[in-house]
Amino acid sequence: MKQSDLFTKTLRENPSDEKSLNAQLLIRAGFVDKLSSGVYTYLPLGLRVIKKIQNIVREEMDNIGGQEILMPSLTPKENWVISGRWNVEEMYKIIGEDTGLGWTHEEVVTPLIKKYILSHKDLPKSVYQIQTKFRNEPRAKSGLLRGREFIMKDMYSFHETEEDLNEYYEKIKQAYFNIYERCDIKRITYLAVASGGKFSEKYSHEFQTLTDAGEDIIYICSGCNTVFNKEIKTEKCPNCGGADFIENKSIEVGNIFKLNTTYSEPFGLKTEKNQPILMGCYGLGISRLMGAIVEVSNDAKGIIWPRSVAPYQIHLVEITGDENSVKQKAQKIYEILQNKNFEVLYDNRDEKTAGEKLNDSDLMGIPLRVVVSKKTLSEDSVEVKSRNADDACLIKITDITNYVEKSIQ
RNA sequence: CGGGGCAUAGUGAAACGGCUAUCACGAGUCUUUUGGGAAGAUUUAUUCUGAGUUCGAAUCUCAGUGCCCCGACCA
């Protein structure tokens, strides 16, 4: 992608109407635009990040047998009446008050599955979608961390026995940790025991990533590392002979529940033996995860994307000094990298000074920067620098593809 | 939903109730520039909306709307 073709631009100043770091950086770097509170447009760079995260999530869900579907956002009132959730304040109601915008999808997926699961032999099954959710939040805040319209993966699983549900639940936990590992936040992400919420009597689990930008507080047992959220934390850790807790701010980046028969009963989802089917539900906010990654991976100059979710792998920056020969060479290197199928953003802008280009590059946070200038070309070289490294070094132009191949593994 | 704050050019800011609403950056045109946010010339506004007070309102008052923050809420 040639940067001169991008319709977005970076901003020099923080927007005055955003205090949250993830929103400031993402807006300044041209990844997102705010339409209204909690409602954002994903611009070309931001959408590439979203797609990267989606694909990681998709692969991990597919790996544990999830089948991807896409359910509607327009959902009829009657389904919500059955579950008793029509009058929750999160729901946006539209079209003469007989339709709601889906803020979760048990009310759609349960009757859907009922049409196809006719016998215990059809179990277990697991379906998921990646879809825009609408929640009328009383207070949207913190940029992408709490929106009114946001992108979420929600998976639902269906089981004949509790043992089978429990077994799948453990697979889900592992798949979630794989996702956080691949997004490079696993080292600061904890599995916290939480309450079951309004509609589930049992415990649930939240995946909590440590960051001061988060709105949750988790308690990590100093003895056994068990983690609780504040709803169910006791004075002393019950698992561990009463060790103390360490308090941390965090953002919930995933939440998994055993719904058991909470929805299968009202919707009549049962086996041929008249036994209600056991359900689990597993949410993960894609756009929130993007915001969380920015919150925990940045420096004074801008974003530092993990390779796995970066919009491009390489930021090729030419500093021509108005010399056409430098531009021609940079163009050539761009073509070489493109032909090797590397993802390259090529800053070919003529009207920008070196300082502006380098600052923009730091702000955007692409993992590997390759600079081509008169200086580097005098040694038949380019300068390479990782976004998270302090120092740059020169490598020969003939070694570029080898170097890049190694560095983006 | 309670509390607080803010709203001026594309962006960020300034302006005591009083002169043509100022500055920087961006963007457009022209010339010169290019390794860490260049220089000159020139162009760039319905001061959020509505009402009110006043000889006179960006500035004061009231109402509305939007945004941010704290809290409540949060599958």
Based on the model shown, name its key terms.
RNA-binding; 11 helices; 5-stranded mixed beta sheet; 409 residues
Itemize the secondary structure elements and their pairings.
Blueprint lengths: L20 H8 L3 E5 L2 E4 L1 H20 L3 E2 L5 E3 H7 L8 E3 L4 E3 L4 H9 L10 E10 L14 E11 L2 H21 L6 E6 L9 E7 L5 E6 L5 E3 L15 E16 L3 H4 L10 E8 H11 L1 E2 L2 E2 L10 E6 L4 H16 L4 E4 L6 H11 L3 E6 H4 L3 E6 L6 E4 L3 H8 L2
Parallel strand pairs: 3-7, 9-12, 17-18, 17-19
Antiparallel strand pairs: 1-2, 4-6, 5-6, 7-8, 8-14, 9-10, 10-13, 11-12, 11-13, 13-14, 15-16, 19-20, 20-21
Helix pairs in contact: 1-7, 2-5, 2-7
The structure holds one RNA strand of 75 nucleotides.
Describe the structure.
The protein is of the alpha+beta class and 409 residues long. It has a 5-stranded mixed beta barrel with strand order 9-10-13-11-12. It has a 5-stranded mixed beta sheet with strand order 18-17-19-20-21, with helices on both faces. It has a 3-stranded antiparallel beta sheet with strand order 4-6-5. The longest helix has 21 residues, at 162-182. It is elongated and about 80 Å long. It starts with 20 loop residues before the first helix and ends with a helix. Strand 5 (92-94) and strand 6 (99-101) form a beta hairpin. The chain is built from 11 helices and 21 strands. The protein has helices spanning 21-28, 44-63, 77-83, 106-114, 162-182, 264-267, 286-296, 324-339, 354-364, 374-377, 400-407, and strands at 32-36, 39-42, 67-68, 74-76, 92-94, 99-101, 125-134, 149-159, 189-194, 204-210, 216-221, 227-229, 245-260, 278-285, 298-299, 302-303, 314-319, 344-347, 368-373, 381-386, 393-396. The structure holds one RNA strand of 75 nucleotides.
